[in-house]
Fold each of these.
Amino acid sequence: MYRAPRGTADVLPEEQGYWRYIEARARALGQRFGYQRLDTPVFEQTALFVRGVGQGTDIVEKEMYSFLDRGGDSMTLRPEGTAPVCRAYLEHGMHNQPQPVRLYYFSPAFRYERPQAGRFRQHHQFGVEALGDGDPSVDAEIVEMAWRLMEDLGLRDLTLLLNSIGDSECRPAYLEHLRAYYASRVERLCQDCRGRLERSPLRLLDCKQEACQALAQEAPRSIDHLCHPCRDHWEELMKCLRRLDIPFRVEPRLVRGLDYYTRTVFEIQPPEERAQSTLCAGGRYDGLIQELGGPPTPGIGFAAGMERMVSNVKGQGVPVPQEESVRVVIAYLGDEAKGEALSLASQLRSKGIGAVLAPAGKSLRAQMRYANSLGVSYALILGEEEMRSGSALLRDMAKGEQRVVPLQGVAEELAN
Ligand code: ATP
Ligand code: MG
């Protein structure tokens, strides 16, 4: 037997209600905040992600699904959404439109990770990006969107973590402090972090190893080393969030590891904090579009993991409407009734009512069992008796009551 590849999952029919619930709320959120949907391809040139996500990140170092296509070009299944959005923004001249350009997307993301609860090799993201405006009010807008999304989903007891990692002006000096701090404690770092210390010391703050996390607690904080413009931006962002009544906690260890990530970073955590539980992560990337060959352009966005939202919505027992499915099963006996059943089903569907035929050649009892298993509201029963009189039995499944109805007009009656 074949199985779905390790780290991937089927979304079964009974799960679909959760996904549609979250998608509907995410779309409504985009609409309320003036964001437009953008869909980009599932694969891109590998170089886009190497530049746009960055050498020295987990994604580029060890997680990408890259392949040579038959023309010999290196392609990569999208591991994240921001680089493709920025690519499309430049490719379609959106930088010439009034700024900021506000976009959202739904997309699968592919990362070769070690599969665990909440961590997959194919997962799905809802993401938003605001491009072309560096004002702190835009940071507040993005953080607010993430927070409102979680509220709209009915999730409770979440924590919003916020930090500023400065920019190319102030970060170099901060990184020196960080290197000096870690250099005198190298023997307590994990192997990976020892390797990262010279190249990307910020990433040490993000390491999931216990020993490294303990060291990170006492490490120098970026918010204590911001230059004036970054400090003003940071203060104003916090002011906006307070004004919007969005509760946040300053978390000095929250980082993004690359030079083109600037200033604001944030995450939303569920109540029980585990390494793979972050619901949503975002930040500002004022150097990214330039890195991709465009003009200097500020940008900020977040991505929320669909699987993690589903699991929290379930875990917190949020009532989610189930998908409306079939409402009527048509049971019938005999060949003549079969033709009538087909045509009745067709009439019902044309009125927007979900209808299916019970399985052919089964006893009435078996057909009703089938209707029960689908959980339908009604069964229409076409027996030989009814056929002779041009009528049917309409059975209300919940009440267990049935009555004779004329075939003529039964579709209208059910539609009402
Ligand atoms: P981590 O540090 O936990 O690996 P990340 O920084 O790689 O997280 P992002 O790239 O910011 O995560 O992804 C945005 C969101 O997508 C995450 O907050 C999470 O909800 C979801 N996500 C990321 N990777 C996975 C995965 N492998 N499986 C399921 N969801 C994921
Ligand atoms: Mg990751």
Amino acid sequence: MPETWWRSAVTYQIYPRSFADTNADGIGDLPGITSKMDYLAWLGVDAIWLTPCYRSRWLDGGYDITDHRDIDPALGTLRDFDRMLAAAHERGIRVLIDIVPNHTSDRHEWFQRALAAEPGSPARDRYIFRDGKGPAGENPPSNWESRFGGRAWHRVADGQWYLHLFTPEQPDLNWENPEVRAEFLDILRFWGRRGVDGFRIDVAAALIKDLREPLRDVVGGEGSSGLDDFAANPDHPFLDRPEVHDVYREWNRVFHEFDPPLIGVAEAWVRGDRRVRYIRPGELQQAFNFEFLRVRWNAAEYRRIVAESIAGARSVGTVATWVLANHDVVRQVSALGLPDDVDLRVWLATNGTEPSTDLELGTRRARAAILFALALPGSAYLYQGEELGLPEVADLPAGVLQDPKWVRSQHKEKGRDGCRVPLPWTRTGVAFGFSSAAPWLPQPADWGEYAVEVQRDDPDSMLELYRTALRVRREFGGDETFRWDDQYNIGDVLAFRRADSILVLVNTGATAIPLPDGEVLLSSVPLETSTLPANTTAWLRPR
Ligand code: GLC
Ligand code: CA
């Protein structure tokens, strides 16, 4: 298989509303991204992925789309998109956009028509409408639950129910309907012709539902919605159904209408052995490794997952895709500063007070973790703000929370706003350089300490570590060889060789280990003696 750009690419995830605001409405926008393209080039990323910028009701951070062929006015226009794309391409940066095939907004024209139409009509068949159970159809058609809490069925005025695996304002599309399939092929082409390089596919594993009657209930142990638990059931009613692969084989053919072919990266919260099915030849190119993201500083777990992921990817002739953070999870420096048995949702519900996170330890581990992830063979995704070492803003007041999880969980889960707080660019200023107005989510008072402007001048900063790592990685990132180094790969220490000459050591333990003789290419903290301290990663060229 020929080497292709994405195989070793480092892609930076942009959450547009929180990146940079240019028109003083407190909301980041596309011209904001364009204005920071030099920053991204300076940082050294190969590609960017933008979470949704489409027209939306913004009830789920833009994942509730009303028009897939237009930019939301809050973020700009199609012209702004074209300018952003050109600015990226001029700098050799590829651009991926989110695509959300599982559901639309309830304000989408199709859903409005479905509501206005009769039960059983073609307009309703684009979504998943069913009669309820019980004498008057008063009970939902199945026990399926929404990922954000509550049931996954909503009843409409004429008594039918429709399926929504997320909020009721995000009705699920019916992927058995040929019009739905054709529509998305057309949307892929629309953006492909505009020049995008590929797509991040939202909820990629849940498109196909087993709609044979009677609908099967989800049984205990499969998790509420089954979307978040790596469900191991190979015959789950709506997660990771084998038929979903037909969709991606069809998409792959559209990708190949372009030169170079477009790519697709799957957001699929499935187990590793199932994940590789998404990246088989003729399907998608990448699938996020969420098992890796979930590990909280445990060498044995890392060892197992890294080995399985590399072997799994190789078995289908490709490489793995490493990810440590995104817009749906607690930020690294906070998560890694907590004991690994703390449930992060429970922790968030205490506003991040119980227990309190050790940010110094978390930051140290996050530095080691990123050098670990960037040293692995394959591609990697970085989430905006991680390069600044931003902590989770766990104490956002209830009144500002926007994540639908908060309301749908009856205020039990604070949700994901704490990792979506706008970036600080400058030490001071109304919104630390993000905007000249109050930002859509409030930034903590000490946010300026993390600003790009501050860290840029500091060789010990997180930002400089990222930048250096991306530069040094270019020397070996394209090489796909990997082998454990049995001499050092023991207990709390992970050790592997890359490109034959490079030795990567990750010390997750609490004590220092002797460092082999050699040239230190990079280390997550300065090495003063010939030892590798606790919670440290080093890239070496042994003598
Ligand atoms: C994905 C997105 C998440 C969104 C959900 C529904 O998990 O990453 O942010 O809420 O899909 O579209
Ligand atoms: Ca704006």
